[in-house]
């Protein structure tokens, strides 16, 4: 089971990032387990409560101790996983590199798109499909916790032919499907790649908090998308997606005046938190910034596959 490396160092003078983002250790018994979360001050867009709680498992949830000694659990048989503690957002310059010598015939170059709920992940999936589909063979996999709504959105809006889109229901821990146990996404991605001889695969994570990020076993290129509606504080709050994604997208810049967000502050903090790593200001719904995002993807695609863009 793959676990990405995160630096244990703090990052940025005057910024405190040594707190645990999510230390969700479990104690399993026959009928229940306990999550013991540390209190911390970052925003969440899903229902992971930040207090000690225990809950009974029904028949759809199982827990067990793996050979590595960790406690794993599975909701409705989906994406068995542990909750591994993340102690620092890490550094862009020390992020896990893409896997070397990967067989792109087995699974095409895969772009992972992550970020909190409502930031524009699905809108970006749609925009990328429309921008790339005439020149490249594409397929897409979307993740939702309990619905297939995002996949249905792509079908409804004609992003790709319906057969090239798969919708995955991850259950209540969407981060597990992109990091701790990626098999629930690898299966459909490999199937689509083989069926349609794809050049590029797009994989959208379920909406999660700032601690979520893709495993390099799953994503060759990682895009993390935030938006200004959460305020200009979001880049400096950090998190592995913000600091270590190959590209950070700051979306919905047109909303900045309405929410009082200072784009200059967001630019300053994004540069600082990402060690100068690339980021794009965008209004994806209106097409602004999409071409820049595509250029970043294709540069990485060329470098990884040795092919030239079409």
UniProtKB/TrEMBL annotation:
An example Gene Ontology biological process: urea catabolic process
Biased amino acid composition, Basic residues: 35-54
Superkingdom of this protein's organism: Eukaryota
A Pfam family reported for this protein in Swiss-Prot or TrEMBL: cobW
GO MF, one example: GTPase activity
Function in brief: Required for the maturation and activation of urease via the functional incorporation of the urease nickel metallocenter.
NCBIfam families named in the record: ureG
Annotated family: Belongs to the SIMIBI class G3E GTPase family. UreG subfamily.
Oligomeric and partner information: URED, UREF and UREG may form a complex that acts as a GTP-hydrolysis-dependent molecular chaperone, activating the urease apoprotein.
Name the record gives this protein: Urease accessory protein G
Organism of origin: Theobroma cacao (Cacao)
Lineage: Eukaryota, Viridiplantae, Streptophyta, Embryophyta, Tracheophyta
């Amino acid at each position: 089971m793959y676990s990405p490396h995160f630096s244990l160092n703090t990052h940025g003078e005057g910024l405190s990032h040594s707190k645990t983002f999510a230390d969700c250790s479990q104690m399993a018994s026959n009928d229940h387990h306990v999550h013991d979360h540390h209190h911390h001050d970052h925003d969440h867009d899903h229902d992971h409560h930040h207090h000690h709680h225990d809950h009974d498992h029904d028949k759809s949830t199982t827990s067990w101790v793996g050979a590595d000694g960790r406690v794993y659990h599975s909701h409705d048989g989906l994406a068995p996983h542990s909750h591994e503690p993340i102690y620092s957002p890490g550094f862009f310059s020390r992020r896990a590199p893409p896997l070397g010598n990967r067989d792109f015939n087995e699974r095409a170059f895969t772009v992972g798109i992550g970020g909190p709920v409502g930031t524009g992940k699905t809108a970006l999936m749609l925009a990328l499909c429309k921008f790339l589909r005439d020149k490249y063979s594409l397929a897409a996999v979307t993740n939702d916790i309990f619905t297939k709504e995002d996949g249905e959105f792509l079908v409804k809006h004609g992003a790709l032919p319906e057969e090239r889109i798969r919708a995955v229901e991850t259950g209540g821990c969407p981060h597990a499907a992109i990091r701790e146990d990626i098999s629930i996404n690898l299966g459909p991605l490999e199937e689509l790649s083989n069926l349609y001889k794809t050049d590029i695969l797009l994989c959208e994570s379920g909406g999660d908090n700032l601690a979520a990020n893709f495993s390099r076993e799953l994503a060759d290129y990682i895009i993390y998308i935030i938006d200004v509606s959460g305020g200009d504080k979001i880049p400096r709050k950090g998190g592995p997606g913000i600091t270590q994604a190959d590209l950070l997208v700051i979306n919905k810049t047109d909303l900045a005046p309405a929410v009082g967000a200072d784009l200059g502050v967001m630019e300053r903090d994004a540069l600082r938190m990402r060690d100068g790593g690339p980021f794009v200001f965008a209004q994806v719904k209106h097409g602004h910034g999409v071409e820049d995002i595509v250029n970043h993807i294709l540069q990485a695609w060329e470098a990884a596959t040795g092919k030239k863009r079409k």
